[in-house]
Amino acid sequence: MEPLLSWVQTTRIATAIGGSTLLTGFLSAIHLLGLTLLVGGALVASLRMIGLILTDRPLNDVTPGPVRGMSAGLVISVGTGLLLFAPRAPAAAGNSFFQVKMLLLGAAVAFHFAVYRGVSRHVDAKPSRIKLAGGLGLMLWFGVAVAGCAFILFE
């Protein structure tokens, strides 16, 4: 794996990003915008699923927009995250906070597509299942965000 990561770090795009504070800052800002869409959507949809906000509105009226926002935020964050990863691939891959972030990201994406989206769309789903999916989804996405912050702080 180390040879692949070292090669990624030496690619043209990685060296261009790594050599430009402006480009790194721009990509970081876009990455955070994607994360904001992702976690903001998770917050709204999950809190509705849990039954803490907008309880006077049907689940199907509230969750589709935030869930679409989560998908857009995920695409933006993954795309910019790969670009930000490239200039420091070996060091990032060896960082335990980064590894935790990637494990949580994989779990959150799998849960989102396998469970969360389906439960948020089904009006006839059991209330306990809706609450559980909302709570677990929210915890996973916030875990990704916290692990990402820890990675940046302790890199």
Architecture overview:
There is one protein chain. The protein has one domain. The chain is 84% helix and 0% strand. The protein is built from eight helices and no strands. Helix 7 (96-121) packs antiparallel against helix 8. The chain is elongated. 28% of the residues are buried. The model has no long low-confidence stretch (mean pLDDT 93).
Which secondary structure elements does this structure contain, and how are they paired or packed?
Elements: H1 2-10, H2 12-18, H3 21-50, H4 59-62, H5 64-85, H6 89-93, H7 96-121, H8 127-153
Provide a quick synopsis of the model.
The protein contains 8 helices and no strands. With 155 residues, it is an all-alpha fold.
